[in-house]
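Per-record layout

source: Limosilactobacillus panis DSM 6035
name: Oligo-1,6-glucosidase
length: 568
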Amino acid sequence: MERKVLLLMENKHWWNNSVVYQIYPKSFQDSNGDGVGDLRGIINRLDYLKKLGVDIIWLNPIYKSPQVDNGYDISDYQAINPTLGNMADFQELIDGIHHRGMKLVMDLVVNHTSDQHKWFEESRKSKDNPYRDYYIWRDGKNGKEPNNWGSYFSGPAWKYDPETDQYYLHLFAPQQPDLNWENPNVRHSVYDMMNWWAAKGVDGFRMDVINLISKPKELTDGPLTGDEKYANVEKLVPNGPRMHEFLQEMNRNVMSKHKMITVGEMPGTTPEQAKAYANLDNKELNMIFQFEHMGLDGNSNPALGKWNDQKTKLADLRANFTKWQKGLMGTAWNSLYWNNHDQPRVVSRFGDDSNEENRVKSAKMLATMLHFQQGTPYIYEGEEIGMTNVYFDKLEDYVDLESINAYHQLVDDQHLLDGKTMLKYLSMHSRDNARTPMQWDDSKNAGFSTGTPWEKVNPNYSTINVEKALTDQNSIFYYYQKLIKLRHELPVITNGDFQLVAGNEDDPAVFAYRRQNADTTLLVITNYTDQTLQRHYDVPDGAKLLITNYADDAGETIRPYEAKVYQY
Ligand code: NOJ
């Protein structure tokens, strides 16, 4: 047997063939009519998730928070946000998850807190406050910010605080001050908090922008390359000098004590770096979320950031997936995802939501492309029924601060785009696309809430909803259910080698790859286009058609958005 496969088997974890389902609690299910999803709403839907077959549930932040960034601004790590419920609800939720044989992963947001966290309230009081060093404070330079860094959410990354005549660093919103990980007290406060949740039965953590916690040694100006007003922190901050030291310390203090699953959100990370963070030797994290495949539709003008209307080319996508599959094979572990609460909907972005047939076909095709790769698949709420972008056409409909700030910066402030163009870009890339309420049925507000939803419901809920999906054996839901089941049943999906089919490297329309272990081969064929194509692949006699999104097999004729997998 190949050395790589052996290595993987030696390092087997309980979650290796698991599938994760991500819940954005505010948008999943409201149980009390206040228009905001809550923990009781999730409890009421656990049987649905069990039916889908997922193993692990990841909840976006449910902690006490002023909700400037929907819970990514935490004011108390050990309390539940009142709009979502209370600790008793949480206990019932985790018991309900465990009772059904599933596990729970919580979001860990420790690059920053809310400015209403008691640590920050103390920190800003005086320069000699015991909590001063919990955050990153600097003097201004010539009456301006300490350096030229821009925040991820537009504007400068520093805010002046008159109380002590200094600036504090905030890589995200001003209400999200960055913690100072150089301070051992910060680190140990975080580890204590993590162990406290582990004692409550939490099975793992998804770590928010964790590769930003170690800041560069000197916080000096970054380069400006074009029209941008501030230096791009995405290029300056990730993967700082003490990252491995901090994660290893966290692992010794927390992860090594529990049977956990950990995934670090790490924008700007390459396979080489991922091999160190998510090595099978298990000294740091189990896997990371990398973002390269989310940036392939990006801009040539850095000042526009992610705002554009390009569709990702299959050639780029395939090259990227292949790089990560081959790069980590036998050394580290991949996470596999198309969607999350920060990304537009997969079927609208990479597939085709222009008509019902193409929506269903392309959603299944994309699921097939991803779910046969090595790693841990993440399904984002609504992906399993093919929910689409909402395509708001007015700025007033947007709720997310990233979208609203970007509009004002690029249109009103810098005049780099006209309003109409920016609205088009928002409709394709805004995070609000992912955050519209879950579409349960065709009743008022898609069955999400009897009140007024905090974020508008996508009007297509009358045709795209869970109730409808469950009554149709050919729905996207049942296709995902089958993909999950296959991952549980076929070890080759977990441990097989990955190879592109010979000649596929240059195919502009079809992505074809093989997974192979000592006794099984899978041949995965996916058509990324709406064209009918002719392709020849060597399929041995007797090969079984394992799964397909068409009713039959047309052999060498590959139909629009067709996906099929042979097993032999
Ligand atoms: C990444 C999270 O996924 C995103 O939603 C959040 O706004 C930022 N980190 C800041 O916490």
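summary: The two ends are 18 Å apart (CA to CA). Residues 69, 72, 109, 172, 208-209, 265, 341-342 surround 1-deoxynojirimycin (CB under 6 Å).
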